[in-house]
Write a structure and sequence with these properties.
about 70 residues, mainly alpha, about 0% strand
């Protein structure tokens, strides 16, 4: 919602809160966490904060790849 309104600060805080909550609730290898990390990175990318988005993108990819069938 905040991203659609171009309220990037609120969108970023909301996404970071979702990431933190999911880490506590679902652990560090949850597909849900990967989705939240993707959204978080997307918000940073929207602000051209590519270096800040890179760790979230990397973690998202790692989780997503580990969730694939072997």
């Amino acid at each position: 919602v905040y991203l659609a309104m171009h309220d990037y600060d609120r969108a970023l805080r909301s996404a970071q809160n979702a990431v933190n909550q999911l880490r506590k609730r679902a652990g560090n290898d949850s597909v849900q966490l990967a989705r939240c990390l993707y959204r978080y990175a997307n918000i940073l990318e929207s602000q051209k904060k590519y270096q800040e988005a890179l760790p979230a993108c990397t973690e998202c990819l790692k989780i997503s790849l580990s969730a694939l069938p072997q």
